[in-house]
Write a structure and sequence with these properties.
It is a single chain. By secondary structure, the protein is α/β, with parallel strands linked by helices. Helices cover 43% and strands 13% of the residues. The strands form two sheets. Strands 1-7-6-5-4-2-3 form a seven-stranded mixed beta sheet, sandwiched between helices. The structure holds pyridoxal-5'-phosphate.
């Protein structure tokens, strides 16, 4: 039937369903796309990191109309070539130091293509991809230093993982105090209090809002000079809340803060959590795998006692974007929060479906393939080597900054984030330097607010970044810093 279908569906030909293509054409397009992706990846370093677009260009694309009738499929690649690929986010480039985004591991790109072809839905069923997701979760948990029996799900990213973990924390607390619903719920819920530091990622506040906590129910604890949660202040806040009749239920630590790469004192926080019966969630979207590196492992001695941990494979593991992980010590805590089923889903499930552990029902199975591909390629030693790559480049950058008469360090945690500025630059000049740098397109970094004013922030978490990129970063910043017209 579909053999007669050409590039454009002939509306009059009812034997030819929309979207179907002859298998020879499918093969041809996949080969063409494979060449396109391979060319793109191998040429990425030769192009600008990012290319700014003006408002008109943006409006053109954002307003692109759906054509009245179908267009030839061959034009799709041409469209991408012209309107999308030349204006990348930048994170595929080795000299991208912005935010915490990396280039994709090539094998994981292949895995995502295969995942798209297999197209499993990992919310339901007992097929292979759901068990591969279980293996990916167990592998991540093991690398992170969590005990056997830890479970969880892959998510779209760290923000979603934080949300799932906070929801599980809330649900466990209400369940254990018999306040899951009814009048006790109505009484208890407004009294719940969660704690974070002033360096916590804003996704924690989003998660708190999403599970129905008011702003006042998320207590923000100050940090010390090294951007680590002040545990004495945490204890004081908990005691004050208890005295006021409130119900502390969870504390969120950050292992690898986004702003400066700090690691909260996990052992001391774990102790406080245990003492007051709080759920200890560790946001390790950036630094969740620190236990896998000998230089960082000391900070993670208490990670095995955490109730939950967020890890973002799309950050330090360089999977393609769209992959986080919520790792939970007692997976049933997630299931209590999300384990709703329906008559149209109930089969004779041998094992619970993964949809019972998260808010999503139909959910991509390709994520499991991508994580597995990277873990398979790296092995444990490879994960350590990859983290070591980031840390080694980070110390080279810090050394270059310290030794450079025109640069000054501002903040630097154990993780691979370095905050610095042109010596003596005020906030406006620092912002202007970042803007000029982004416009020039040779390297990319963004700025961050620190306890010591605005700083340039260089995050290193790409397998592609090399010492040449570090040199280029230092050269670009100093060259721009010497141009007085930019400091306005
Ligand atoms: C990046 C990050 C997040 C959010 O993760 P996304 O994958 O961007 O949703 C949460 N917490 C920390 C500490 C992060 O660095």
């Amino acid at each position: 039937m579909s053999l007669s279908c050409g590039d454009v569906r002939d509306a009059a030909d009812s034997s030819c369903p929309p979207l179907a293509l002859p298998s020879a054409r499918v093969r041809e397009m996949l080969v063409e796309a494979a060449h396109w992706v391979a060319d793109y990846l191998s040429g990425v370093a030769d192009r600008p990191v990012t290319t700014p677009r003006d408002d008109a260009q943006r409006r053109d694309l954002a307003g692109w109309p759906v054509p009245a009738t179908g267009q030839p499929v061959g034009e799709f690649l041409a469209f991408v070539d012209k309107h999308v690929a030349p204006f990348p986010c930048g994170n595929g480039h080795p000299a991208f130091f912005g935010w915490i985004n990396s280039a994709p591991a090539p094998l994981a790109v292949v895995a995502e293509l295969i995942g798209a072809g297999l197209n499993p839905s990992n919310g339901m069923g007992e097929h292979a991809a759901v068990d591969l997701e279980r293996a990916a979760i167990a592998g991540l948990a093991d690398l992170a230093g969590l005990p056997a029996g830890t479970g969880g799900v892959l998510t779209s990213g760290g923000s979603m993982a934080n949300l799932l973990c906070l929801a599980a924390a809330r649900s466990r607390h209400l369940r254990r105090t018999g306040a899951e619903d009814g009048p006790r719920y109505a009484e208890a819920h407004p009294a719940l209090v969660c704690y974070q530091s002033d360096q916590a990622h804003m996704s924690i506040a989003k998660a708190a809002r999403t599970i129905g906590l008011s702003a006042a129910q998320l207590r923000t604890v100050p940090t010390d000079a090294d951007y680590r949660m002040d545990v004495t202040a945490l204890r004081t806040a908990i005691c004050a809340d208890l005295d006021a009749g409130l119900i502390p239920f969870a504390v969120v630590s950050t292992a690898g803060t986004t702003a400066t790469g700090a690691i909260d004192p996990l052992s001391a926080i774990a102790q406080v959590a245990a003492e007051f019966g709080l759920w200890h969630h560790v946001d390790g979207a950036f630094g969740g795998l620190g236990a896998a590196h000998p230089d960082l492992a000391g900070h993670y001695a208490a990670i095995g006692q955490a109730d939950s941990l967020t890890v973002d494979p799309h950050k330090t593991l360089n999977t393609p974007i769209g992959i986080g992980a919520a790792l939970v010590a007692r997976p049933d805590d997630l299931r209590h929060a999300f384990g709703l089923t329906a008559s149209y889903l109930d089969g004779n499930n041998a094992w619970p479906w993964l949809s019972e552990y998260t808010v999503e029902l139909t959910r991509p199975g390709g994520r499991a393939l991508a994580v597995w591909a990277v873990l398979h390629q790296l092995g444990r030693t490879g994960v350590t080597a990859l983290l070591d790559h980031y840390l080694t480049l980070t110390s080279l950058l810090r050394q270059a900054i310290e030794e450079h008469p025109e640069l000054e360090p501002v903040a630097a945690g154990p993780w691979s984030v370095t905050c610095f500025r042109v010596r003596g630059a005020d906030d406006a000049a620092t912002a202007a330097t970042a803007r000029r740098l982004q416009e020039r397109g040779n390297v990319f970094l963004a700025t961050v607010s620190t306890k010591d004013g605005l700083a340039l922030r260089a995050s290193i978490c790409s397998h592609l970044t090399t010492t040449d990129d570090i040199d280029a970063l230092v050269q670009e910043v100093t060259a721009i810093g010497r141009t007085p017209s930019t400091a306005q």
